[in-house]
Specification:
The chain is an all-alpha fold. The protein contains 13 helices and no strands.
Length: 337
C-alpha cells in the first residue's frame, strides 16, 4: 500500500512538473496567437514526419531482435514491432512504463523470459544514451558560439545576474563549485559503508552496473555492424522527423541540417525527462532552443513544438492501439528454443 501511495505521489509530481514547464514554454504568449500559427501550418510535413517515425520504430524492432537473437531466442519482427509501439503508448501514461510493457507483451507472445528481454532493453537504452551524448557533444563543439550564448542567457545570467560578465565572480563561483565537489567526495568516501545499506545507493549502483553490462552485451554482439546500421537509421530518421516540420512554417523553413541536429540533441533532453509523454518538457526545451538560438518568434517556436509533439503523440496512440489488437490476433508460440 505504501509503495502504491509513493508511486501515485511521484506520478502527480511529474505531471505537475510537465504542466509547469508547459506554462513556462507558453509564458507571455496568448493562446489565440498560438492557435493562429497552428492554423497556418502546412501539416503535410508533419504527416511525412509521422511516416518517418513509424519506419524508425521498425528499425528499432529489428535492432531489438538482434539482441534477443543473441540470447538464442527467435522472434517475429511484426510481434516485436507491435510490442515496441505498445511500449510507447504506455509511456504516454506513465514514464518508463513502456520498457516493462513491451517486454511483458513480447514475453507472453514469444515465450521468452521477461528478465532476459528487460536486460536487452537496458542495453538498448544505454547505447541510445551514449549516442545522444555524442550528438550533444558534436552540437556543442560545432555550434559553440550559439550554444555558449544560449547557456549564458539560460543558466549563467540567472545564477550570477549582473556579475555574469565579471571574471572575478566567475572564478569565485567556479572555485566554490570545485570546493563543493571536493567536500562531497570526502563525505561520500567517509560515509560509503553506511550508504551501501540505503535503498537509494543500491538503486544507483544497480543502474550503473546495468549501464556497464548493457555496453558489454553490445560489445559481444555477433552482428555489431548490423546493430550499428539500425542505430544509425533510427537516429537519422529521428533527425528527419525534426527537419521536415521546419518546412511547415515560413519562419523555420530556412533552418538547415545542422540546425536540425542541434534541435534533436537538445530537444531529446525534453523527451527523456521523466514526464508523461514528454509533455511540457519537450515544449519548453524546443521553444527555448528555436527562439533563443535561432531567433524564431516565440509564437512560431511554440507552435512548431506543439504540432510536432501532437503529431508524434497521435501516432503513438493510433499505432499503439492498433498494435494492441494485432498482438491479440497473433498466435502465441507454443514453445521457443
Amino acid at each position: 500500500m505504501k509503495g502504491i501511495f509513493i508511486a501515485i505521489i511521484k506520478y502527480l509530481f511529474f505531471v505537475a512538473l510537465g504542466v509547469s514547464l508547459l506554462f513556462l514554454a507558453f509564458r507571455g504568449l496568448a493562446l489565440k496567437e498560438l492557435w493562429e500559427e497552428l492554423k497556418t501550418a502546412n501539416y503535410w510535413w508533419f504527416l511525412g514526419a509521422i511516416l518517418l517515425a513509424i519506419v524508425s520504430h521498425i528499425f528499432r524492432a529489428l535492432r531489438w531482435n538482434l539482441l534477443i537473437n543473441q540470447m538464442g531466442y527467435k522472434t517475429r519482427t511484426s510481434t516485436t514491432f507491435y510490442s515496441v509501439m505498445m511500449g510507447y503508448l504506455a509511456n504516454l501514461a506513465l514514464p518508463r512504463l513502456g520498457e516493462v510493457t513491451r517486454c511483458g507483451f513480447l514475453a507472453k507472445k514469444e515465450k521468452i523470459p521477461f528478465n532476459a528481454l528487460f536486460g536487452t532493453v537496458i542495453a538498448e537504452r544505454v547505447f541510445d544514451l551514449v549516442v545522444l551524448l555524442l550528438i550533444i557533444g558534436i552540437v556543442v563543439l560545432v555550434q559553440i558560439q550559439k550554444i555558449g550564448g544560449f547557456i549564458n542567457e539560460m543558466l549563467v545570467q540567472p545564477l550570477l545576474g549582473v556579475y555574469s560578465g565579471n571574471v572575478t565572480a566567475i572564478v569565485l563561483v567556479t572555485a566554490g563549485l570545485a570546493l563543493l565537489v571536493l567536500v562531497f567526495l570526502f563525505v561520500f568516501r567517509r560515509s560509503k559503508p553506511w550508504l551501501k545499506t540505503t535503498l537509494a545507493y543500491q538503486k544507483l549502483e544497480s543502474f550503473i552496473d546495468g549501464f556497464v553490462e548493457g555496453l558489454k552485451s553490445i560489445g559481444k554482439l555477433k552482428q555489431r555492424i548490423l546493430f550499428l546500421f539500425h542505430t544509425f537509421m533510427i537516429w537519422l530518421l529521428y533527425l528527419l522527423m525534426i527537419i521536415l516540420p521546419f518546412k511547415a512554417f515560413p519562419e523555420t523553413a530556412h533552418l538547415n541540417f545542422l540546425d536540425g541536429v542541434t534541435v534533436l540533441g537538445i530537444g531529446s533532453l525534453g523527451i527523456v525527462a521523466p514526464v508523461p509523454g514528454g509533455i511540457g518538457s519537450y515544449h519548453f526545451v524546443v521553444t527555448e532552443v528555436l527562439s533563443q538560438l535561432y531567433e524564431v518568434p516565440v509564437k512560431v517556436a511554440a507552435a512548431y513544438a506543439t504540432a510536432n509533439h501532437a503529431a508524434q503523440t497521435l501516432m503513438f496512440i493510433v499505432i499503439g492501439i492498433v498494435s494492441y489488437f494485432l498482438l491479440i490476433l497473433v498466435k502465441t508460440k507454443a514453445r521457443n528454443a
